TrEMBL record:
Signal peptide stretch: none
Keywords: Metal-binding, Zinc, Zinc-finger
UniProt key word Zinc: yes
Species this protein is from: Saponaria officinalis (Common soapwort)
GO molecular function, one term: zinc ion binding
Pfam families: MULE, SWIM
PANTHER family to which the protein is assigned, alphabetical: OS01G0519700 PROTEIN, PROTEIN FAR1-RELATED SEQUENCE 5-LIKE
UniProt-recorded name of the protein: SWIM-type domain-containing protein
Every SWIM-type domain range: 351-387
Amino acid sequence: MDFKNFQRDVKCFIGLKDAEMFVNNFEKLLQTRNGFYFAYELDEGRNLCRVFWADAESKREYHAFGDCVSFDPTYGTNKYCMVFTPFTGVDNHKKSITFGCPLLSNEDEESFKWTFGKFLEAMGKKEPQFIITDQDPAIKNAVPAVFKTARHRFCMWHIMCKVADKVGTAIGKETDFLSKLNEIVWDSDLEPAEFEYKWCQVVGDHGLRENSWLTYMFDIREKWIPAYFRDLPMGNILRTTQRSESENSFFKKFQNQFGTLVEFWMRYETAMDQQRHTFKRLEMESENSVPQPITLSPIERHAISLYTHEVFLEFQEEMKSSMCTCGMVGYTKTSEYEVTEIEDASRKKTFQVRHIVGCDEVECNCKLFERRWIICRHIIWVLSNKHFRNIPDKYIMPRWTKDAIRKPIYDIDGKLLDDYDVTDLKKLEMSKIWSEIYATVGVIARKEVGDMKNLASILKHFRESLEPTTETTSKGKEL
């Protein structure tokens, strides 16, 4: 059979029942995949206008990595002009990960409210700490209407992609304006006053003080410039150019202005298989291989045991800089805390590390830990010189560790945690208990028989301590 004719006949058949086949596919997945979530709506003409879905794996990943979420409505998908608007985040390998997937025929405020509502419903009402979007007015209104606690910020990458068009091709491409603007916009070491001074200087030097777009972007600077949220953990959400371009390329695989919904689903499934295969490969590599240390520091070896390769390499850069570019230039001590002034030659700045006397609490005014959840070179310098052997527990963020995604766990009813929305605190705590029991049994199975007997005895005594006595039970019956 001629392949082109076969393809034409298949498309013709699909075209007649495309939306129906698309929805029926999801209805079957609800029956066959544990924890699958799906919702849709039809417009007044009985046409498919809104769809949202998330599977159990996406939900599990969201509970591990959903602190910072990006929502990007820029991907056209099919001949019906529906827009694919994925919810994404960053996993423990610093790769983009997909949490939930809407398809929308209208990009209006009501459609976005519906989408955000379904996302929260699928994720057990758990809100992210931060949500990042573009500047679409409908999205700006919909976010606070649905997300009550999440902080809303604008995507720097999308904004910076517009600069050349907004200031004119000649200025944008033929001068050093773009490079200078990028330098100050992405500089997370700047304090707000420093940023404002440098922005005005760059804009003024290139004769752009009257540019209305730049004026507006400066007016809303607290919504997108890192200088205004240096102490917020948004290192996972503020996109680098490389990651944004990679994510853009990944989702463009779904774009086909002449394609059907069924074709879109097939492309989506293939792409998600690829994304998840990459994640599992990186998980195996982090679990089964060891990065090369560059020092004899026990702190570095502790980091090797904790972090995935990608996160450890970032930590290692800080470790290397702590040795090569940092040195103490001042020290003060009170009864409550010690302050060490660290000169950082690579940044040509001096930073202050404060250590609370008598405990493991440290903080640095460079704010790297607050932004990216790994300790900075200045803190590493102080900890190393105080002969710490480990990174204090308070500064180990589970989302960056090798076991950020735990093995399947069960609730009190014997269900997989992924099978339902986690809203019952009692069930959540029971799932943690079961996980600890399974983990302990796994360890004890490799020990001596005596250890097993000890565990059995401990569990028995603890259970008996929780059970009512015979006397109490009898009295209860008499009453």
